[in-house]
Design a protein that fits this description.
Elements lengths: L9 E9 L6 E6 L2 E7 H4 L7 E3 H24 L6 H10 L4 H13 L5 H15 L4 H10 L4 H8 L4 H13 L7 H14 L4 H20 L1
Antiparallel strand pairs: 1-2, 1-4, 2-3
Helix pairs in contact: 2-4, 3-4, 5-7, 6-7, 8-10, 9-10
């Protein structure tokens, strides 16, 4: 971390004022000059008349950086669960130091606000409910979000791949309605294979969906 407030060796806090635009933050004045802004929780314990050194100011600056990083992470987690790797990537994009990133993730993990096991289960459940995927595709998605193979494997153990393939096939089947059977089968087979489903599952599902379509047309 670069040295902050190099113009101070020792100073006295002469004012602590709530910021106009954000009353949850405090402006700290040293010897009559503005020194830095802090969150209320970071400024807790400071008092007017207190002497403060450059080293103490730098420590306050680091605590403020950690507070901001933590608030950013909490803002993300308020929208949906995130993996620890996703949080880390976001903080890096905002130029947060690695040590602070680690501290924030450790704190939120201890508080059960970041949980890679729970995130993996959530991700798979959401996909199963709204956008079925093959195990291969889901494993790749989890890997992209920093989930280990072990955690991903546990989350994927409940996936019914045949059911997922069947739901995808039924949704796509109408795209090629009216084509000859051979061409229809080829198109749906290629589509499902590209989604990562195993050939034996694809073959069974394609036949099942084709027969269901024929039955519907006969009724």
């Amino acid at each position: 971390m670069p040295r902050l407030f190099a113009f101070y060796t020792m100073g006295t806090i002469t004012a602590l004022t709530a910021q106009v635009k954000n009353p949850e933050r405090v402006s700290v004045f040293i010897d009559g000059d503005f020194a830095l802004g802090l969150a209320l929780s970071v400024a807790d314990g400071l008092r007017i008349g207190q002497e403060i050194t450059q080293a103490e100011l730098e420590q306050l600056g680091r605590r403020e950086e950690k507070h901001r990083a933590r608030e950013r992470a909490l803002g993300l987690l308020a929208r949906r669960p995130y993996s620890s790797a996703e949080i880390a990537r976001n903080l890096r994009r905002h130029k947060v130091e690695e040590e602070i990133i680690k501290n924030v993730i450790d704190d939120l993990t201890e508080a059960k606000l970041i949980d890679d096991d729970a995130f993996a289960a959530y991700w798979v459940e959401q996909r199963e409910t709204f956008r079925p995927r093959s195990r291969l595709a889901l494993r790749q998605e989890l890997s992209q979000r920093g989930i280990s193979r072990e955690i991903a494997g546990e989350a994927l153990s409940t996936v019914d791949e045949a059911d997922a393939a069947r739901r995808v096939a039924r949704k796509q089947a109408g795209r090629w309605r009216g084509l000859p059977e051979t061409e229809w089968r080829a198109k749906l087979t290629r589509y499902l294979m590209r989604q990562g489903y195993a050939y034996d599952i694809v073959s069974e599902v394609v036949t099942e969906v084709w027969l269901a379509i024929q039955l519907d047309e006969e009724q």
